[in-house]
Amino acid sequence: MKLYCSSDPHSWIVRVCLMEKKLAPDLEVIVTSSGETRRAAHLARNPFGQLPVLETDGGFFISESTVICEYLEELCPDPPLIGQTRAERAECRMWMRRIDLNICVPIDHGFRLTRHGSLLFPPIEPAPDAAETMRDLARTNLTWLDQQLRGRETVCPDRFTLADLVLLSFVEHGITTGQPLDPRWSGIERWLIRSRQRPSVREAIGALAETAQLSGTV
Amino acid sequence: MKLYCSSDPHSWIVRVCLMEKKLAPDLEVIVTSSGETRRAAHLARNPFGQLPVLETDGGFFISESTVICEYLEELCPDPPLIGQTRAERAECRMWMRRIDLNICVPIDHGFRLTRHGSLLFPPIEPAPDAAETMRDLARTNLTWLDQQLRGRETVCPDRFTLADLVLLSFVEHGITTGQPLDPRWSGIERWLIRSRQRPSVREAIGALAETAQLSGTV
Q: I need a labelling partner for B84 at 20 to 30 A (CA). Which of A164, A217, B34, B212 fits?
């Protein structure tokens, strides 16, 4: 297997998932600012031009971070990051999609649509008002999530899952793109402190710093 | 099993999936404009307050349309709407997430953030500029998808999947909310004509009209 990745939050989710499952495919770090993701060689892997992309041993290309993780879970079910039963998998996927659509997407647009962010994602045009609307939406949904997280340590009660990883990746992305946590979100703060202590997460933070250096983003 | 649903595009996806799999759970149609989805009884089923929600025979509540469909596929794999192999499932999920995030979400925001749309989704505030940015984004991504669909009849080549259903639901939603198809999108148009002819889709269009009447939206 081979993972094409960068220092973006979606690549990070897949990197931590691989570490949890003790899988170590070949890595190819792509410098997105070089325009390589819009060239034919990469579009053959993912016609939408995004990262990460996993090339399977069968030569099949899979993109979309959570979809790559679903594939890795099927390939290597232990330790489970989605779930061992139908109900567990449904619970994790439900939380993952709630977070993905209602928190990650607006945080992502809340950066891409700013003047600074749009420079990194051509052909996106800057739309500062829309960026602010998206940031507001992320804050509204994080306020809701904060209430849900009070009194528990993980997104799915009593087990660390892909839903925690997806949330963690975008909470950290928000923090580095001018979308800080509200000090009143004590449930999220407590969850964040614990999540950052997880060994795979600590290891991935180190690997990410190295990737950022390789991909020229620091 | 019991499905709580309304006349929204996400409920429609689950209804067609159930028809494909010849499953007929009890249905409870909820009138969203009555405010019922924000009351305690519904928040106990889905704390995010959305529809559809599936109550399993085990008394577990699953929300998020595509997650309900993943559950139904595991429960009743025949006919397959996601895939029979690891690679097929990855292919369908990849297309489904591309469409979900890059087409459905902006079409949805392109309606919810308008003055008219925001009235239906309190506490969303109208943000017409952001609605227009989201409509532009949907158009950009549909232009890309149109190129992908030329020369094939389904989103995943040679098989009708959940990815077609998700796209169909939001293309139709766009058409009814002032986001028409561009006449240049001949790939999408051809795909749309074929998809609408599928028996489960024809049946669901009838059921949807009935639900819309029950839920007071017509």
A: A164
